[in-house]
UniProtKB/TrEMBL annotation:
Signal peptide bounds: none
GO cellular component annotations of the record: TAT protein transport complex
Protein name in UniProt: Sec-independent protein translocase protein TatB
Database matches in PANTHER family: SEC-INDEPENDENT PROTEIN TRANSLOCASE PROTEIN TATA, CHLOROPLASTIC
Source species of the chain: Pseudaquabacterium pictum
Record membrane topology: Single-pass membrane protein
Cited InterPro entries: TatA/B/E, TatB
Gene3D superfamilies, sorted: 1.20.5.3310
Family in the record: Belongs to the TatB family.
Any one GO BP annotation for this protein: protein transport by the Tat complex
Quaternary structure and interacting proteins, as annotated: The Tat system comprises two distinct complexes: a TatABC complex, containing multiple copies of TatA, TatB and TatC subunits, and a separate TatA complex, containing only TatA subunits. Substrates initially bind to the TatABC complex, which probably triggers association of the separate TatA complex to form the active translocon.
GO molecular function: protein transmembrane transporter activity
Subcellular location per the Swiss-Prot or TrEMBL entry: Cell membrane; Membrane
UniProt keyword terms in alphabetical order: Cell inner membrane, Cell membrane, Membrane, Protein transport, Translocation, Transmembrane, Transmembrane helix, Transport
């Protein structure tokens, strides 16, 4: 850009003072300053927009690279799963063929138990409102641990000697 030193700015100011005059010079200087500020903001906005577009393009390139890498990983996992599934099915078929053919050996009943379905899941009957602890109740009673809360007056009445009321 144009390089203005102190001597050039002083020369421009002296010429402006002579040409414009001392009455109008402050207003013109404010106007020129405002225009310079707008020009600088415009240039800064253009630079920021260019930087954003460059970053966006880089991000899109990285996104496409990650997508291709993810697709490659997905394909390799899918092929490995298929090969493992085929090997597993082959082993199951070999075992079933061995179990079906070995009825005389006494192993035929194992094949029948493998094919029977497991019983249906039943949720355990938990009484979740009851507070349960790991310490047994008899131990708590022996150690004197309170099992329920009592008010202060009820506790005093409970432990008051029988003759006093």
């Amino acid at each position: 850009m144009i390089d203005f030193g102190f001597d050039k700015i002083a020369l421009i100011g002296a010429v402006a003072l002579i040409v414009i005059g001392p009455e109008k010079l402050p207003r013109v200087a404010r106007t020129v300053g405002a225009l310079m500020g707008k020009a600088r903001r415009y240039v800064a906005d253009v630079k920021a927009e260019v930087n954003r577009t460059i970053e966006l393009e880089e991000l899109q390139k990285m996104k496409s690279q990650f997508e291709t890498a993810a697709r490659d990983v997905e394909q390799t996992v899918h092929t490995e799963m298929q090969s493992a599934n085929q090997a597993f099915n082959q082993q199951v078929n070999d075992l079933q063929a061995g179990l079906d053919g070995s009825g005389a050996d006494g192993f035929g009943s194992i094949g029948n138990t493998l094919s029977t379905p497991s019983p249906e899941y039943k949720r355990p009957n938990k009484r979740w409102r009851l507070k349960r602890s790991a310490v047994p109740r008899w131990y708590k009673q022996r150690a004197g641990v309170r099992g329920h809360v009592q008010s202060g007056a009820a506790r005093v009445a409970r432990f008051r000697p029988p003759g006093m009321k």
